[in-house]
Each structure stands twice: as C-alpha cells, then as structure tokens.
Amino acid sequence: MLNRRILRIKVFKTIYSYAENPGMTIKEAEAQLEESCESTRDLYLFLLSLVGPLTDEARNRIEAARSKFNPSEEEKNPNMKFVENGLASLLASDPDFSKIIKKKKFSWDQYDVLLRHLYEAVRDRDYFKAYIGDPDRSIKQDAELWSDIFANELQDNGELAEILEDSSIFWNDDVEYALNYCCKTFDSLGKGGRWALPELFNSDSKSSSSTKQSDRTFVVNVLRKAVANFDKYYQEVATRTPKWDKNRICTSDLCLIVAGQAEAEAFKDTPKKVIINEYVEISKFYSTPESKAFVNGLLDKIIN
C-alpha cells in the first residue's frame, strides 16, 4: 500500500520528532514510525467505510419524504438507484471488511452532520444527476460514482479535516493518498474484484517482484541510520554552511538533509540523484519556499 515516496515522508517526520525531542530512543522512534505507517491504512479503511453510512443517509431521506403527510409523486416514487448501489451492499456483505471495521471500532454514527452536508452536496453535482438519470445499472457504474464522490467531495472538505485531526495526529497529511487508494479499490470492485485488506508495504503484495528489497527494511534502516548518526550528519551540515548561524537552520530542512544522508549511506546502490530528487520534492510540501535550493545544494555537496 505504501510507496517509497510516502515512506520517505514518514521517515522525515519521525526524524523531525527526534530532532525536537532528542531524548527519544531508537525504540520509541521505530514505534512512532510503525504507528505512522499503520495509520495510513487505518485512514483508508475509515474512509472506505463511509460508503455504507452515506448510502444510509440517502435512504433515510427517502423514507422521511415518503412519510410526509402529503408527499409529492416524486417522493412517493423516488429514484432508488443510489440507495440500491451495488458497492454499498458489496462492502456490507463482505465478512473480512465488516470484521476489520468492527475490530478497529470505526463508525460514522457521530458524524451525522457531515453525512447530511455531504449528501446534500453530492446530489446537486452534475455527475450525480447523470448517474441517477441513466436507467442502466451496473457495479462498474456504481464504482465510478463513488470514485467521483471521493475525488471531488472529500479532498478539501473542512468538516472531514476536523474529524480526521481529532481522530489521529497522522491522518490529515495522508488524506490524498488514502483517497486515491480508495478510488483504486472502487475501480477493482467495479471490474468484478473482491475486497481484500491491502498489505501495508508495496513489497509485501502478491504483485511485487520477489527480488524487490523489502520496504519495511528500507524504512526502518533509514530511520536507524539517521538516529544513530544524527549528530554527525548535523555537523556535516553546519560545516558546509559557515555563513549561517547553525541555530537558524530550519529544522525541517535539517531533517530532510539528514534523511537523505542516512538513505545514501544505508543503501549505497540507490542512485544519488534519485535520493536527492526525492527529498527535494518532499521539501516543497514540508518546508520553506527557499528550502528546495538549500536541500538540493547541501545534499549534493554532502552525498557526492
């Protein structure tokens, strides 16, 4: 499930925690890294479990309209296509999916306001109106609708962001990645596949080459190397920035450079250019506007 880019981000964030809390032990750092990795899969599961509750919200709306004292013809004979979408029933009837959601204690029951607002937004969208207006029905069509909902309504949803922030310190930064993985799942189900819990690391999946280096080994070894040699790496940065007060070096920049040094030392077969480019890309999202050039220049000098 987790690719190398997101693993590098998680290593960088754990190194940042270590830099801010130098009393952290390597065991504690590894535990935080493991929790951070697992949290992305948990977020995927939590978001995927939204399919049933949002379908139920639509069903409840229809039943409430039918129960009016004087319902309209449309309310008496509503379009049931979305309420009867095959994806919701497919996930609800999957014993493995139901079991893990129950085990994780994931529930949307307390987020009825979000469900109401989300359904109101969805039913006004052109893609939803086109779906409802098409008399044909298929699991593929249902899957495409859910991909549209997740891609268009959840990415920058402020209400969802508040829920995720309250639920886990790791979740907000992983929303886009988890949503994309949900859409991959919809695509697979739409083609007749069955849901299966994704392996945490890509290298553990059945489709992965047996000769591929373990992603777990990769991420743990980079972290161990970074923590064990943090002071040495820090000094190398300081000596190459004599015009800078070492206390003014941005902590995020420092941790990105330390992560790059650690990976280059732990995995000497990885092309240096690849390592440098990866951490420069990460700096664009997690550091200052000037960080791209700074991280690129320092890593190039140190690694080469």
Report on the architecture of this protein:
It contains 16 helices and no strands. It is mainly α and 304 residues long. Helix 12 (215-228) crosses helix 14. The two termini are 32 Å apart. The mean pLDDT is 92.
Outline the fold blueprint.
Elements: H1 4-20, H2 26-48, H3 51-66, H4 73-76, H5 86-92, H6 95-104, H7 112-123, H8 126-133, H9 139-153, H10 158-167, H11 175-190, H12 215-228, H13 230-239, H14 251-266, H15 272-286, H16 291-303
Helix pairs in contact: 1-2, 1-12, 1-14, 2-11, 2-12, 3-7, 9-11, 12-14, 13-14, 14-15, 14-16, 15-16
Short descriptors:
mainly alpha; elongated
Termini gap? 32 Å
Query: Biggest β-sheet: count, sense, barrel?
Result: none
The backbone outline, from C-alpha atoms, is: elongated
Task: Give the strand tally.
Answer: 0
Count of separate DSSP helical elements: 16
Bin the helical content: 55-70%
Structural class: mainly alpha
**What's the helix-strand series?**
HHHHHHHHHHHHHHHH
Could you tell me the strand content as a percent range?
under 5%
**Rg result:** 24 Å
Low-confidence stretches: none
What does the average pLDDT come to?
Answer: 92
